[in-house]
Amino acid sequence: MISLVALGIGNVVFEYRLFNMMLFSDAETIRETMVQTYLPFNEIIGESFDIFVNGMMHVEDLHQFFVMPICLAYLLLLNVRYIVKKNVKGIFTNYYNLCFLIIVFNCVVYGLYYSQSVEHLIETLVPPLTGFQYNRTIFFNPFLWCTMLFIFIYRLYLWISNKVNSEQGKKSFIYKALIGIPYVIIFVAALIVLVSPTKYNDLYHTAKLTARSEIFGHENDALNFKEFYSTKLFDEIKEDLDYKTGEYSVAYGMHPAILEYNGIYTLDGYLGFYPQSYKEAFREVIAPALDRMEPSRLYFDEWGARCYLYSGTDLSIVMATKSMSEVTDNDIYINAAALKELGCKYIFSRIDITNTDKTGIKLIKSYTDNSSPYTIYVYTID
């Protein structure tokens, strides 16, 4: 508990600007202008049930294949026993049932997030929480499913141990064989998670790509951690540019996080909470691209957390791959004057931009290094 409190205080201290803006500032933020998707009541029920069974993309724990059937079977057995023994109090005091109720509560909350009535109620009662994604309590569910499984395993182990140590158990080979079941359950539950190719299973993908490269000799197009950030290459770029701390830049064809990791200040980024005024100022920069791509316009105007330079032709030009095979147009569509007004000095691009003369930007130099798969083109604004 002390550790959790310390972590919470540390988060508030380091993110003081975020909390100040969210709780004590009257400044309008992107959270107040995000377009929320609302569902009718029957679909809210369906969404809650779906999230109970399948979980959420960001917390894909695969509990539905093994953990959930075991936990629900034990839940039924446990409470039927309480009812048969007329021990109603036991139903409400068992930690196992509490974990299950919290899971159900999180799923209901997740569904209610899409209720317009609930949204308006929160906006009225607690205005600072306007746009707050309270449905993220669903992130606790994988932990709770595992907690339920471990409670079951612990109780199963105690039950089997008591049977083995009984007079009948000492004479029975069957009871002695059962002692391994809890270990098998733990092994299978862990194995399903480790070997499944889910989106965020870094262990699986790292092992797969390493085997593909080292054992079978195939070239991987996916970037590893070292290649993604390419610190040596960016150190050389900063030295050559005589980059000064505080000189602002933007990224094109790559995540701004790459620049940020390498100590380069950015005007763009993946920002879940920032002033609406800045969103509008940055929109002037990317307006030429958004005018050409309706999906990108809706993505930015109705959400806006990905404050990036967009392509005017392709849906996405940001790829964690060595190749840029999905890029079909090397032209950039930006308002360079608006970008300059924001204080931008450099544009770092993985794409060799072909319409620099029409856009008002100028190539400084292209950079490569043997340690990196990138070719980085650095531009400045005329």
Could you list some keywords that capture this structure?
single chain, 382 residues, alpha+beta, 4-stranded mixed beta sheet, two-stranded antiparallel sheet, 19 helices, 55% helix, globular
What structural class do you assign from the helix and strand content? alpha+beta
Strand order of the largest sheet: 1-4-6-5
Number of domains: 2
Kindly state the percentage of residues in helix.
Answer: 40-55%
How far apart the termini lie comes to 56 Å
Q: Can you write the helix and strand succession as a string?
A: HHHHHHHHHHHHHHEHEHHEHEHEE
**How many helices does DSSP assign?**
19
Return the average pLDDT rounded to an integer.
Answer: 92
What would you note in describing this structure?
By secondary structure, the protein is an alpha+beta fold. The protein folds into 2 domains: 32-206, no CATH class; 226-381, no CATH class. It has 19 helices and 6 strands. β5 and β6 form a beta hairpin. The protein is globular, with a radius of gyration of 27 Å. The N and C termini lie far apart (56 Å).
How do you describe this structure in short?
With 382 residues, the chain is α+β, with helices and mostly antiparallel strands.
Please describe the topology of this protein.
Blueprint: H1 2-14, H2 16-24, H3 41-54, H4 67-84, H5 88-93, H6 95-112, H7 116-125, H8 141-165, H9 167-171, H10 173-178, H11 181-195, H12 202-214, H13 225-229, H14 231-241, E1 248-252, H15 256-261, E2 269-270, H16 276-292, H17 294-302, E3 306-307, H18 336-341, E4 344-349, H19 356-359, E5 361-368, E6 375-381
Parallel strand pairs: 1-4
Antiparallel strand pairs: 2-3, 4-6, 5-6
Helix pairs in contact: 1-2, 3-6, 4-8, 6-8, 8-11, 16-17
